[in-house]
């Protein structure tokens, strides 16, 4: 029986809070996938500032109630921004779009209390776009013992099989996504799927640059590379850091940059980059600590793959200095849009009631679907 192929639009806003990635794809939610196009739209300065300030203010469930009105106002404005982008820029594709996967902006993520909040009004976006919108992807996973993240591994699996078949890249194959948080998807063969959060990604570097300059991130790692690591501060940060389990989902608020206070922009960025790289490398080591063998295929995606200074620091901390990281762009995928494509794919699977999270990816009790379907037109 022939499977239906859906046209789905994926919307992703990351921890850098710089804008929204949009990806239009065609897929059956199983093995067929093709990318139609990808595009990025930057937030206006006011919306971006308000989202970051709100995220910084919320550190507990009590804060969610305390800032409820503010949350609702910013959620509406964020949703209106998404709707405007879709309605103004997708006119030629609107009739073809079957589903919209709406990730929303993560404000608070605490899986230990089964809470993860992504701002974004699915009902309102459905009304404004006249399309079926699927959002709130993490709730069902959290309700069933999962960590709520990472959710992209089932899409990473599809990509990995594509790379294996088209480019003859052998398993085991690992996709490392360096976004705000760094996570890894491992495919030991076509059916053996595992995933873990490894440590921070860009979150600490972005925060430092944002608070100490007029820039929003360290482009290509040039700021960090121009600075000098303060080894005393770095070593103290390592000694003071509480170890974490790779079986737990991480949040940007699990880390902070206070240890670099007083350093120059460049030296602070260099020191924080080295600290981030150290934690990522430690996460990788935990996956292979028994065999001390990193001789696998590692493919990078996410904005952090462009930070050459970060990548070189990660390599320096690994016990196998010959580990090679490839960019996913080398395999005909755009590494900037893997996450937005993933949420288009997850929207299709959610609509079809197919699993989107698994015991070996999010630690949920059993493979489950997720997402809330909004048909508000």
Fold and architecture overview:
The protein is an alpha/beta fold. It folds into 2 domains: 6-148 and 337-374, ATPase, nucleotide binding domain (Nucleotidyltransferase, domain 5, 2-Layer Sandwich); 153-331, ATPase, nucleotide binding domain (Nucleotidyltransferase, domain 5, 2-Layer Sandwich). It is built from 12 helices and 13 strands. The chain has helices at residues 45-57, 61-66, 68-89, 122-129, 139-143, 153-167, 203-212, 222-226, 231-240, 265-288, 308-317, 338-351, and strands at 6-12, 19-27, 33-42, 99-102, 105-110, 115-119, 132-135, 173-178, 181-187, 193-200, 297-301, 325-327, 372-374. The strands form 3 sheets. It has a 6-stranded mixed sheet with strand order 3-2-1-4-7-13. Helix 1 packs antiparallel against helix 3 (68-89), helix 7 runs antiparallel to helix 10 (265-288) and helix 10 crosses helix 11 (308-317). The protein starts with 5 loop residues before the first strand and ends with a strand. The model has no long low-confidence stretch (mean pLDDT 94).
Features:
Nucleotidyltransferase, domain 5; six-stranded mixed sheet; 38% helix; 2 domains; 377 residues; 20% strand
What's a quick, concise take on this entry?
The chain is of the alpha/beta class and 377 residues long. The chain has helices at 45-57, 61-66, 68-89, 122-129, 139-143, 153-167, 203-212, 222-226, 231-240, 265-288, 308-317, 338-351, and strands spanning 6-12, 19-27, 33-42, 99-102, 105-110, 115-119, 132-135, 173-178, 181-187, 193-200, 297-301, 325-327, 372-374.
Shape: globular
Order of helices and strands: EEEHHHEEEHEHHEEEHHHHEHEHE
Number of helices: 12
Whole-number tally of structural domains: 2
Low-pLDDT stretches: none
What proportion of the residues form beta strands (DSSP E)? 15-25%
Per the CATH scheme, the topology name of the largest domain is Nucleotidyltransferase, domain 5
Lateral strand order in the biggest sheet? 3-2-1-4-7-13
Q: Kindly name the structural category.
A: alpha/beta
From the N-terminal CA to the C-terminal CA, the straight-line distance is 31 Å
Backbone CA Rg: 20 Å
The CATH superfamily of the largest domain turns out to be ATPase, nucleotide binding domain
Instruction: Average the pLDDT over all residues and give the rounded result.
Output: 94
- What is the CATH class designation of the largest domain? Alpha Beta
Helix proportion range:
25-40%
Largest sheet: 6 strands, mixed
Please tell me the CATH architecture of the largest domain by its name: 2-Layer Sandwich
Number of strands: 13
């Amino acid at each position: 029986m022939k499977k239906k192929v859906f046209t789905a639009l994926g919307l992703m806003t990351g921890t850098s809070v710089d804008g929204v990635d949009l990806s239009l794809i065609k897929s059956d939610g199983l093995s067929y996938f093709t990318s139609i196009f990808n595009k990025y739209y930057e937030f206006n300065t006011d919306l971006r500032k308000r989202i970051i300030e709100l995220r910084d203010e919320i550190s507990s469930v009590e804060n969610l109630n305390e800032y409820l009105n503010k949350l609702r106002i910013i959620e509406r404005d964020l949703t209106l921004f998404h709707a405007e982008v879709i309605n103004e820029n997708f006119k030629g594709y609107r009739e073809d779009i079957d589903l919209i996967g709406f990730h929303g902006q993560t404000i608070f993520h605490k899986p230990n209390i089964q809470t993860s909040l992504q701002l974004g009004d699915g009902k309102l976006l459905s009304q404004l776009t006249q399309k079926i919108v699927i959002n709130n992807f993490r709730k069902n996973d959290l309700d069933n013992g999962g960590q709520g993240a990472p959710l992209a591994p089932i899409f990473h699996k599809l990509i990995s099989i594509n790379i294996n078949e088209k480019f003859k890249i052998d398993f085991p194959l690992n996709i490392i996504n360096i976004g705000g948080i760094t996570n890894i998807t491992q495919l030991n063969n076509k059916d053996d799927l595992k995933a873990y959060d490894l440590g921070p990604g860009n979150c600490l570097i972005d925060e430092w640059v944002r608070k100490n300059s007029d820039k929003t991130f360290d482009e290509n790692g040039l700021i960090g590379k121009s600075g000098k690591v303060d080894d005393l501060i770095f070593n103290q940060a390592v000694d003071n850091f509480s170890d974490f389990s790779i079986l737990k989902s991480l949040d940007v608020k699990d880390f902070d940059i206070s240890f670099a206070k007083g350093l120059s922009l460049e030296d602070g960025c260099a020191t924080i980059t080295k600290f981030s790289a150290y934690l990522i490398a430690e996460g990788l080591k935990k996956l292979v600590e028994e065999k001390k063998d990193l001789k696998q295929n590692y493919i990078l995606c996410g904005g952090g793959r462009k930070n050459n200074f970060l990548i070189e620091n990660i390599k320096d901390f690994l016990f196998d200095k010959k580990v090679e990281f490839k960019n996913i762009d080398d395999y005909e995928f755009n590494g900037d849009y893997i996450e937005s494509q993933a949420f288009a794919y997850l929207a299709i699977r959610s609509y079809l009631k197919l699993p989107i999270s698994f015991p070996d990816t999010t630690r949920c009790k059993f493979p489950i679907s997720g997402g809330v379907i909004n048909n508000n037109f």
